[in-house]
Every structure is written in C-alpha cells, then in structure tokens.
Amino acid sequence: MKPWSISTTVRNPERIRDFLGVLKHLEGKPFNTDNQEKYQILLIQNKFYKPLNIPIKFQKYYDNPELEIPFKIASEIFYHQDYEDPAMRGRQSVNPLNKLGFSIAREREGNIIITELGNHYISGEYDIGYIFFKSLLKLQFPNPWSSDFSTKDGFDVQPLISTMHLINNVNKKSDKKGLTQIEFCLFVPTLINNNLIDYYVEMIFKYRKERNKDKFIKDFAKEFYQTNNLIDKQIKNFYEYGDNIMRYFRLTKYFKVATDKFGSDWRIDFEPSRKLEIELILNKFNGQSLKFKNKDEFLNYISDITLPKLPSEDLVNLKAIAHSLVINILKFAKDNNVLLSNHEKNIIESRIDDASKKEVEELISNVRKINLALIERQNKSYLLYNVDKLKSIISDLKNSKILKKYAPEQFEKIIAEALKIINDEIRIQPNYPVDDQGEPIDHASGGKPDIECYYNSYNAICEVTLDSSRNQWMRESQPVMRHLWEFEKSSSNTLNYCLFIAPKIHIDTVFYFWTSIKHGYASPSDNIITQKIVPISSEQFAMILETCLKLIEKGKRFSHNEIGELYNGVISLKDSVNSHTEWYKNIPQIIEEWKRKIVA
How far apart are CA 416 and CA 451, in angstroms? Predict the structure, then answer.
C-alpha cells in the first residue's frame, strides 16, 4: 500500500508554470527519448532545474544570474550527471504537468499537447483559484492513463472531492472545525478510496481522544502499509505528501488555512465565503473516481476545460451564490463597522433577476474583490498605530532563531503589516496571492516586487528574503534591480526607492546594489540608470520600527516623509565613500543619526 501524492518532483506549485512554459516550446513534437532528454536540458538552460553535479568550468553560469546558459553548455551539464537513464529525468519532470491535466506528454502517445487549461495557466491571464480547482477536480485514481495507483491496490478516489467530504463529515460531528496539520497529513494522503471516508472520520475522533499520539500514528501507519516493520521514511512521507497536498489544495481558494505566525503549523477548513458552492459540489460528487471507456476518452476529458460540469455553472445556482456573497459582505461590513463606497454599493445592489450567466459571473468576481477590499480596510484599521502588534514584529525581527521558522510568504506579510502600521500610505500592496480572507497562500511570484508602496511624495518597492547565504546575491540582486526598473517605468513622475530586507545582507549583494546606485543599472533597453536601493538587515529594520514606536507611544505622528529622509541619507552616502564595503559599513551610523533626529 502507498499514499497518493500530487508531485514529489515539483513540490512548489509556483514552479509548475515554469516547467509548463518550457514544455510549450516542444509542443507538437513526439515525447520520445530524444525530446525527453531535450526537455530536461531546456529546464537546465532556463535555470528552472539545477543538477547536483555542476562542473567547475560551468559554475559561472550559476554565480551570475544574468549570464544565460547556451543550450550546448546545458547539454554538457546534463550529460555530465551520468544518469543511468537520462531520458527518465525528463519523464519525471513532465509527470506532474500530465497528472494535473496541464499537458499530454508521454512516449508513444502522439505529439506533445498543452491543454486549454495549461495554456490559460501559461498566459498569466487567469484566476489561480480557477486554474487549480479545475485541475484538481479532474485528478483521480485510478485513471486509464496511469498505472501508478491502480484498482488492485485499492484506489478509487477523487482526492479533492473525497477530502472535502472528509472535512464536511468531521465538521458535522464536532465543534472543532477542520483538520489539524497532523490529521490532514495522516488521513488525506492515505485516503485512497472514497469508501474510507466514514472510517477515517471515526479514526480522526479516536486520534483526538488518544493520549499517546505517537503510538496511534505508528499503529495507523502499520495498518496502512500492512507491515509490522515500519521505517522512518514511511511516516515521514505522510507529512511530506500532506504538506505538499495542502499547498495545492489551498490554491483552489476553497479552503481556509489558519497558520501560526511563522506559517509552519497549520489547520485547514472550508473557506466560509464559498459555503454554498461547497454544498452544491458535495451534493453532486461523492469522491468516487469516474469511469472511462478507454484512455482516449480520459484524455479528452482532462483536455476539455468545460468538464466536469459544475453546479455553479447553472444560472439558478449562480444567482444563489451571488446572493449569498452579497449577504455575507453586508453582514461583514455591519459587524466590523466598515463603510462601503458608493461604487461598491452600486455593484452589490445590482439587479440580477434578468441577468445573463456571464453578467452574474462578472458580478460574483466583482463582489469577491469588494470582499477582499473590505477585509483590507478592516485590517488597516486594526494595524494603524497598533503598538502591541508593532512590538511583536520588532521582537521577531531581532531574533534570528525565530526568523528561521518563518515561511517566505509569512515573512512578506509581517513586513507589509509593519509598513502599514507606521506609515501614511496611499496604498501598500503585497503581491503574494491571497485566499478569500486576504491571507497569503504563496510568496510573491518572481515577476513582481514583493510589496509595492505608494505615498504622496514618493513611491517604493520592498523586497524581502530569508536567504542570508552567498546565494542571496545570485537569487536577489538582479531581480530586485529589474523589479525597481520596471516599477520606475510605471511611476516615472515621482521618486522611486527600493527597500531590501533580509536577516543578514551578504556583502556580494551589497556590491551589486552599490554598483547600481553609484554607476547605474543596465536596463533591458540598454539605458544606464542610477537606482535608489536601501539594503538593511531585519534587525536594522527593527531599530527603525522601534523609533516609530517611541513616537507613537508619545502620541506623535509619523509619516512617510521621515522614512524618505532615511532612504535619502543611505543613498547620498555614495558621494562620500569609495567602496561598497565602506558604504554598507556606514549605514548603521546613518540609521543612528536619523533616529536621534526623529526622536528629538
């Protein structure tokens, strides 16, 4: 017996799009041995996959993130690995794309096809929730295209739907809604048959009552694997697969994941604003795998973006969902004393009696945006000059052991919150994708700044990373400078800064930023432009926050202009020092002088 999984090759859902974009270049060609190897070489060339054994003579391509790898060199790197079956690497890399219904790429199965759903994902013009809900809804075991999880091994499940039924049945019987991280990791990857749902509900309640949790877990694992000789990896796989599954499921936006402040310990339940949609889905689907006459019928199914037909696609149900969302928003606004703008009122009060399906879908989309806007306003009200929250953030930023526990998206979140607490911004916009409650479901994608900040006197981006190793400059320096250049293009009528925050700033990163502010950044259009980048450690940022805290506690106002003075002080250092090391060495002094002036 074995647990099911989505992908052990591409663990981060964000990388799926990169892998799919590379496969797009081979579309229309057979996925034979040659193209399997070529696919893996293209992943290496595009730096989406890094082999373990890089020849020293090729290390420069990884040391310099802007240095492109020629295809010939990527080939040498690939074959230098001396794989027993080189083509297998390409098959492994494409497997999650096939499994999720984004592509059809398999040996002796005709030419490579990127499905309609896959093309939507590549285009960038998509709702990530829609993409992954449609994808995971089609995921089932067994299926005619895979022998990995077969009927003879006991598989008969649509994992997404069966998990929804599992959570729903638990919620009906308990005031403790949803599943804990351990419960999810034990009972979702091992939910290989929809007939197990009722049994697993009983097991979950038994686990909750059990005093010796470790013994329960081991006994459960022995029963599942049908062995008395457990190995550590078998239990470890539960947690590894479970965490990976949660990340994919969460992208559908049908689940709410409550995490600790680090993002490491979590609990999963249904997203409240999708209550009616979930009820309709559970009434229509029972979690049993669909039956197909043959492989071609299954491939047509996963290729058709309109399948399966959802109850929400019925106009009557669609109108009911819109009505339910409006009621929830009005209740939220009343309960939290949040005001609706006239524009938002007009949308919410829209008459849909005679509306078309497209009009109702557009209304639902707009109402969800209003929901996020109201949550953002409530959070802003909560955060504004919130002394206790500021003290908590300062404490974490000064503790390197605490920072190591943070997930990247949670680190981005606390920096965004700190900026909202202390400043008089027009808008501070984190670019991480969020669920319906505004909580981050992943870190910001590589194509955008982590956080965008808009003020009356200037604008800024804020880039954050938890990486303090030498890899920091390889992963961060060029992307940060490019993000600032692109941001300046759209905000050319004002001053633009970049605040870069990490637990520690590597000196190689400092060198690149120094070069950019002193001598200029060579933009993609070959224009040399000087930039305004302020690199500070998380502890130094905590010192800045402490200064703001002192003013807040004294009842004094603090504005973006004070922060702007600090930015200018750091940037103007370039005219009085001779090297990047001297520049960075003097930044703490600039911060101290700024603190004394502000407090005085």
Answer: 7
| Longest Cα separation, the chain | 79
Percent of the chain past pLDDT 70, that is, above it, reads 98
| 499 membership: H or E segment, kind and range | strand 495-502
CB atoms closer than 10 angstroms to residue 409: 20
Per-residue pLDDT of 139-178, as tens digits, reads: 999 999 888 899 999 999 999 999 999 999 999 999 999 9
193 strand-pairing partners: 156
Averaged pLDDT for residues 407-422: 92
**Residue 176 phi, psi dihedral angles, 5° rounding:** -85, 95
Q: Which two tokens stand for residue 395?
A: 């404490």
What local confidence, expressed as pLDDT, does residue 553 receive? 86
Cα gap 471→256, rounded to integer Å? 33
Confidence of residue 218 (pLDDT cuts 50, 70, 90): very high
* pLDDT given for residue 26 in this prediction: 98
pLDDT over 70 at 436, yes or no: yes
Q: For position 336, what pLDDT does the model report?
A: 92
| Reduced 3-state DSSP string for 130-178 | HHHHHHHHHCCECECCECCCCHHHCCEECHHHHHHHHHHHHHHHCCCCC
Residue 122 CB contacts under 8 Å (≥ 6 apart), including other chains = 17, 20, 21, 24, 114
Q: Tokens representing 62?
A: 């990884």
Give the sheet arrangement for strand 255-259, strand by strand.
179-180, 266-270, 255-259
DSSP class per residue in 351-374:
--TT--HHHHHHHHHHHHHHHHHH
Each domain of the chain, given as residue ranges in start order, spans: 13-126, 153-284, 314-382, 384-599
Q: Which helix (H) or strand (E) holds 453?
A: strand 451-454
CA 528 to chain centre: 33
Residue 255's φ and ψ, nearest 5 degrees, are -125, 145
| pLDDT per position as a tens digit, 382-398 | 888 889 999 999 999 99
- The CATH classification number of 384-599 equals 3.40.91.50
Alpha-carbon distance 13 to 317, whole Å?
Answer: 31
> By the 8 A CB rule, do 500 and 514 touch?
no
Vertex 139: Cα angle to 205 and 252 (nearest 5): 70
Dihedral of CA 52/58/61/63: which sign? positive
183 pLDDT tier (thresholds 50, 70, 90): very high
Tell the burial category of 222 from Cβ atoms under 10 Å away from its Cβ (0-12, 13-18, 19+): middle
Task: Report the pLDDT value the prediction gives residue 524, as an integer from 0 to 100.
Answer: 67
Region 29-46 average pLDDT = 97
Find residue 113's DSSP bridge partners: 104
Q: Is 152 exposed, middle or buried (0-12, 13-18, 19+ CB in 10 A)?
A: exposed
Is residue 526 over pLDDT 90?
no
Both tokens assigned to 541? 């940022």
